[in-house]
# Entry
Amino acid sequence: MNETIKLQLNHRSIRKFKQQKIAPEIINTLVDVAQHTSTSSFTQAYSILSITDETIKQQIATIGNQEYIATAGHLFVFLADQHRNAKIAQEAGQEISVLSSFDRFFVAATDALLAAQNVLLAAESLGLGGVFLGSILNDAHALIDILKLPEYVVPVLGLAIGYPDQQPQLKPRLPQKFMHFENTYPQDPASLTEQLAAYDETVQEYYDLRDANRRIDKFTTQITKGMQRKHPGRMKLLAAYQKQKFIGY
Amino acid sequence: MNETIKLQLNHRSIRKFKQQKIAPEIINTLVDVAQHTSTSSFTQAYSILSITDETIKQQIATIGNQEYIATAGHLFVFLADQHRNAKIAQEAGQEISVLSSFDRFFVAATDALLAAQNVLLAAESLGLGGVFLGSILNDAHALIDILKLPEYVVPVLGLAIGYPDQQPQLKPRLPQKFMHFENTYPQDPASLTEQLAAYDETVQEYYDLRDANRRIDKFTTQITKGMQRKHPGRMKLLAAYQKQKFIGY
# Structure
């Protein structure tokens, strides 16, 4: 046990922030941390946007359907970015068709996501809180236009950070035996729902600050309901990435 | 500055390990850290395999074409996993066709990758070192068979950790101005290669422990050469994920 692990085990997503901007030196440090994260084959195939323009912030909050996006102390968008590398290669006369493979998209997305986690933890280590925003992908087509992303660049994850103005409970996770296995993926139990009964109860005891007046659904109920949602914008995510010339094959 | 950020800024990939196993309590802590990472809509759509079987380790080392994979103190494979959630929903009579959308693959991959970064940093905080293994995807079809992954489960990243037996230099990263932008993606400079000349020199001064006898290529040269590589197995990654029923649309 040490400071880093203590911090990691205490992670809560923060969605309500004090009206206090984050000092530019802190933002620089967070980007520095991002840069020191592992990167696939040293390609550094990601970039970071800091969204400071109030109009763009509001547009992103609308896409994500979450008003707190616009009120965070700082808003990052992590980009899978092969554009810089495409340009370097093209300036050397190299053709770049490999970039349309799923593989080259995925290494770029991996770079961006590993960096994003490091940035959130660094922010938390400085007394900030934050929340990842998958919801920025609710309308990736629009977001790509708003952020003026060129070919081979796509948004993969948003991150809102700021000085916390709430103290959520720690959200109970699945028992390890359901998600950590040895060597090979195990056979399914006869009834997973039965095996998860105790965990389902634990989850129901967690009160979500977003709606503190009622108990939340069991875990298995949340998962089942989630399968019914086909967000129209999210169902166009592949098309949006393909428009940027990624995932052609 | 604090312990966590110091650790993050000092990250080096470690590829040579002492012959010392990692205590099971440490592995449990690392998995606990993974579990406390953010997860999209609380779906916990990832799993972790610990590879302890020597035959499987060797098979993965062969796929990754990196012998140090087999000699690490511990080998993790991070999985994007919607299988558990599929089963929960199906037991409740819910159809699950949404899982074949790119979106549901991508949130699962995001969960797995954020957790992976947290695990590596936690390991580093305990005096361990490690290296991410994108190379396990060189033959995803074979790996899926070896690990007996069911539908809606795919490997996304490997992680080898252990007690370090090398001290690599810190690898110089791109200056921030090339990868951190405000609000929108900037216009390209006339010549990116010219602008990167100083960085190219810095990179050449870095000596890679994997081949300490020669200077490494300039950054721009490495990137250009990388575009020439179309690893046959990696070009089949999308097909392998689609075989698992992911990324159908």
